[in-house]
């Protein structure tokens, strides 16, 4: 027999959230971790973390290259840092190659884009269904003369560059952290994934205000 879900009002939910006590030290550590892993803060923090300025500079150079659409340059820089990063992470390498394809399409280099997709991405799609689906979505950009009418036009947004850049940044950081200090692993993405997982689990039992937009963190009623 089906059971009705518990309904939690916004006022009740906010009271529950406000009742959770967060230590200032934990929040400071989380903020500092974000600043360091994203390259905004260049000084050591904590008692054990040792941050090499050169590694941050190199990592930010890779990230900036992707953000500017210079993906080939970014790949070269990653391989100079540590060839194993891309050798052991096929998903990351595919996403970088996918971004290269997007940049060719953005520049209107249709023939070069098709050739690149066929030679570099299609073989990987044959081995991985998820890669194939992403490749098909990307190639769909070539079907529309006006990309603004394409269902996957978001691939051409700068936000997609930023997403790929963040993925590369995290991979480099993880590689460096394994060699040095695990405290330098990016913590915020893991916390956000945990939040999404927790909300999905709670959805099965209750109706309550969600955080749908992680960029704002604002609560939204189920009906919104």
UniProtKB/TrEMBL annotation:
SMART domains: CRA (SM00757), CTLH (SM00668). Pfam families: CTLH. This is CTLH domain-containing protein. Residues 55-112 form the CTLH domain. InterPro entries: CRA_dom, CTLH/CRA, CTLH_C, Ubq-SigPath_Reg. PROSITE patterns: CTLH. It comes from the Eukaryota.
């Amino acid at each position: 027999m089906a059971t009705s879900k518990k309904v939690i009002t916004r006022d009740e939910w906010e009271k529950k959230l406000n009742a959770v006590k967060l230590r200032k030290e934990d929040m400071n550590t989380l903020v500092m971790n974000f600043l360091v892993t994203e390259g905004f803060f260049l000084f050591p923090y904590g008692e054990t973390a040792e941050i090499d300025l050169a590694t941050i500079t190199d990592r930010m150079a890779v990230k900036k290259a992707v953000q500017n659409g210079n993906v080939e340059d970014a790949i070269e820089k990653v391989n100079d840092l540590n060839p194993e990063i891309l050798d052991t992470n096929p998903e990351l390498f595919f996403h970088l190659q996918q971004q290269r394809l997007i940049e060719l399409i953005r520049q209107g280099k249709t023939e070069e884009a098709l050739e690149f997709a066929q030679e570099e991405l299609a073989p990987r799609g044959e081995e991985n269904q998820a890669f194939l689906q992403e490749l098909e979505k990307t190639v769909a950009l070539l079907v529309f003369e006006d990309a603004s009418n394409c269902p996957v036009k978001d691939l051409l947004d700068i936000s997609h560059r930023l997403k790929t850049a963040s993925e590369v940044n995290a991979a480099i950081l993880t590689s460096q952290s394994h060699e040095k200090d695990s405290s330098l692993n990016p913590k915020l993405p893991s916390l956000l994934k945990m939040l999404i997982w927790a909300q999905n689990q709670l959805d099965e039992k209750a109706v309550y205000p969600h955080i749908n937009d992680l960029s704002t963190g604002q609560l939204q009623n189920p009906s919104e």
